Amino acid sequence: MKRILYFLATNIAIMLVLSVTMRLLGVEPYLNANGLDLKNLLAFAAIMGFGGSFISLAMSKWSAKRMSGAVVIEEAKTPTEVWLLKTVRAQADMVGIKMPEVAVFDSPEVNAFATGMTKNSSLVAVSTGLLNKMSKDEAEAVLAHEISHISNGDMVTLTLIQGVVNTFVMFLSRVIGYAVDKIVFKTEKGTGPAFFITMLIAQFVLGILASIIVMWFSRQREFRADAGAAKLSSAKKMIAALERLKAEHEPSALPEQMAASGISGGGASGLKKLFTTHPSLEERILALRSTS
């Protein structure tokens, strides 16, 4: 879940900064000077949308390290660090990618994430909670899950999906802003403040709705990564790791506010399920058992 949240947070921040910058530089008023030019606007939105998404991808390792406080293992100093590096290197060799950077971040929760611009320039990070609470077999399966994400090119695919989503969010938000400015506020020459304010509000709301698409993809890729981990490690080990996650995030064992931020992503129902990054642990375990 963390890699998705880091990517989305970076992407949203970049998109807002780009929108404000283009406004201050006078680019958007130029598009609206003689009426809304939809063709040029769509081209502008595509450049900005994909640009923002790929900038987010390029910054993904840096931003993930900063946000999580992950420290890269430059040289193994403990038996655990030696095992981590050895395990990740073996799994990377099995899928044919370069050795990712391996990092540890201080957190009591059982968690891990992988990110990076390309398969051969990636980062795998695990929490201290995972190292303390999981057996080596379980931790090996989690690492295999993250290596599978990298091998599947999930971050690049996510970036392309986010780029398409960004394009239409930027395009539609400006059309809405222009319509409100002209129809409701009766601005006759150029665009008034209502265009910019409405556009930002529409961009924020549409961005939230568009995230449903990104979250759907995120849930599908979790099943693929679980299946990949079962091949790299074993289905038995991956199921055990998911069972451990389930035990660590039982509602009775954690306060509600902590359970909501857990890696499991389970428990959501109805509309809330549309905005979850992960399928429930029960669904993931069942999917693995049905194929093993």
Strand % is 5-15%
Mean pLDDT: 85
Helix fraction? 55-70%
pLDDT below 50 for ≥5 consecutive residues: which ranges? Answer: 251-265
Largest sheet: 4 strands, mixed
End-to-end C-alpha gap: 25 Å
**Principal-axes shape call:** elongated
What is the H-and-E element order?
A: HHHHEHEEEHHHHHHH
- Structural category is alpha+beta
How big is the Rg?
22 Å
Explain the overall architecture:
The chain is of the alpha+beta class. The protein is 68% helix and 7% strand. It has 12 helices and 4 strands. The protein has helices at residues 2-25, 27-32, 38-58, 60-68, 79-95, 128-133, 136-151, 154-184, 193-232, 235-248, 256-259, 281-291, and strands at 71-72, 101-105, 112-118, 121-127. It has a 4-stranded mixed sheet, sandwiched between helices. The chain is elongated, with a radius of gyration of 22 Å. Residues 251-265 have low confidence and may be disordered.
Write the layout of secondary structure elements.
Layout: H1 2-25, H2 27-32, H3 38-58, H4 60-68, E1 71-72, H5 79-95, E2 101-105, E3 112-118, E4 121-127, H6 128-133, H7 136-151, H8 154-184, H9 193-232, H10 235-248, H11 256-259, H12 281-291
Parallel strand pairs: 2-4
Antiparallel strand pairs: 1-2, 3-4
Helix pairs in contact: 1-3, 1-4, 1-9, 3-8, 5-7, 7-9, 7-10, 8-9, 9-10, 10-12
Question: How would you describe this structure in keywords?
Answer:
292 residues; alpha+beta; four-stranded mixed β-sheet; 12 helices
Give a quick precis of the structure.
This protein is α+β, with helices and mostly antiparallel strands and 292 residues long. It has helices at residues 2-25, 27-32, 38-58, 60-68, 79-95, 128-133, 136-151, 154-184, 193-232, 235-248, 256-259, 281-291, and strands spanning 71-72, 101-105, 112-118, 121-127. The relative contact order is 0.12.
